[in-house]
């Protein structure tokens, strides 16, 4: 039975130990990073090897391919995409061009991913950018205006689906107010709930129809002052599920990040108990992977339904899409040459 986690792997090919682990533990999906990426042919082989190991042809393979600093498939084998902030900046001077560029950029990225067997891209980042937003978010945030984030986020979602991948809205219920990097420490946000409803939650609420979402490792002091959102039943059940209205497959942010304390077994167990459907573990460390696999349950009940329903939304790229023509238009809109 498939278990409620997504795993990383160590390198560009699966080792015998990894194949055996994936066959036995059967994680719901695999997530890839730059360490796993060399060439298109190598990547196609890697994604196929994972699916063969778990015995599921549609097993999800995920990546963070946003553009800018967060791009795992890089030149020279893949083009360089701009950070999402560029779309927001373009929208400020020409809304129609901003929307078109956001959709095209996401569609071009998705087409790259589809060609190598990747089916889920962890974008768009719907976090609001503030003047003191931590650099770990920074230009990954589309805009400081929730209305712009909603419109361009929707365009990116449409582009991703048109290009052959499923999008993931992140980081619910909002990472933009964090002033420290959750890769290294646990951020705390002191904004009151009313203010977050008016600003931070709005893009997630408007785009809650998307079938995949990712949490934030942040303590929201005005909601649950004791527990990081990823592990907080109050955040997951009362805010994400009820207030925001997100009923899709909810995965944690990467539990390899240092924001969360305790052992990997305890981290994973608390995430599931809070109400997340999937634990995300990214670094490819086999000992940690084994602890996560031991902690999480088999996918069952409403979580299994959410995960299955999410995958039903996947479809092949739009027929007739000409990547060369699309790139010409994208360059003309953005000035980005993709080198």
In short:
β2 (27-32), α2 and β3 form a beta-alpha-beta unit. The mean pLDDT is 96.
Describe the structure.
The protein is an alpha/beta fold and 339 residues long. It has a single domain, classed as Glycoside hydrolase, family 3, N-terminal domain (TIM Barrel), CATH 3.20.20.300. It is built from 12 helices and 13 strands. Strand 12, helix 9 and strand 13 form a beta-alpha-beta unit. The longest helix is centred in the first third of the chain and has 20 residues, at 95-114. The mean pLDDT is 96.
Question: Main attributes?
Answer:
9-stranded parallel β-sheet; globular; 339 residues; TIM Barrel; 12 helices; two-stranded antiparallel ribbon; alpha/beta
Provide the helix percentage: 40-55%
Q: Which superfamily, in CATH terms, is the homologous superfamily?
A: Glycoside hydrolase, family 3, N-terminal domain
CATH class: Alpha Beta
CATH topology: TIM Barrel
Taking the alpha carbons of the first and last residues, their distance comes to: 43 Å
Output the strand order for the largest sheet. Answer: 7-6-3-2-1-13-12-10-8
Helix/strand/pairing class, anyone? alpha/beta
């Amino acid at each position: 039975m498939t278990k409620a986690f997504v795993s990383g792997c160590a390198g560009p090919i699966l080792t015998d130990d990894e194949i055996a682990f994936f066959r036995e533990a059967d994680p719901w999906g695999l997530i890839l990073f730059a360490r796993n990426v060399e060439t298109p042919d190598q990547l196609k082989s890697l994604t196929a090897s994972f699916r063969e190991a778990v015995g599921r042809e549609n097993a999800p393979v995920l990546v963070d391919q946003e553009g800018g600093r967060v791009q795992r498939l890089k030149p020279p084998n893949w083009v360089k995409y701009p950070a999402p902030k560029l779309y927001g900046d373009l929208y400020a001077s020409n809304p129609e061009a901003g929307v078109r560029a956001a959709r095209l950029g996401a569609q071009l990225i998705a087409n790259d991913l589809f060609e190598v067997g990747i089916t889920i891209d962890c974008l768009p980042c719907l976090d609001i950018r503030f003047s003191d937003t931590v650099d770990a978010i920074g230009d990954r945030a589309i805009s400081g205006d929730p209305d712009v984030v909603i419109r361009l986020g929707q365009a990116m979602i449409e582009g991703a689906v048109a290009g052959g991948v499923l999008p993931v809205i992140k980081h619910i219920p909002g990472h933009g107010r964090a002033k420290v990097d959750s890769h290294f420490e646990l951020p705390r946000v002191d904004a009151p709930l009313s203010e977050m409803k008016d600003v931070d939650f709005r893009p997630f609420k408007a785009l809650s129809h998307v079938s995949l979402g990712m949490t934030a490792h942040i303590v929201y002091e005005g909601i649950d002052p004791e527990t990081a959102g990823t592990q907080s039943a109050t955040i997951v059940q009362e805010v994400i599920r009820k207030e925001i209205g997100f009923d899709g497959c909810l995965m944690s942010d990467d539990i390899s990040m240092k924001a969360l304390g305790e052992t990997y077994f305890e981290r994973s167990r608390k995430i599931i108990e809070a109400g997340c459907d999937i634990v995300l573990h990214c670094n490819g460390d086999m000992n940690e992977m084994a602890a996560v696999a031991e902690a999480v349950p088999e996918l069952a009940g409403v979580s299994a339904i959410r995960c299955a329903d999410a995958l039903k939304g996947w479809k092949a790229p739009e027929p007739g899409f000409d990547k060369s023509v699309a790139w010409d238009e994208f360059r003309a809109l953005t000035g980005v040459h993709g080198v």
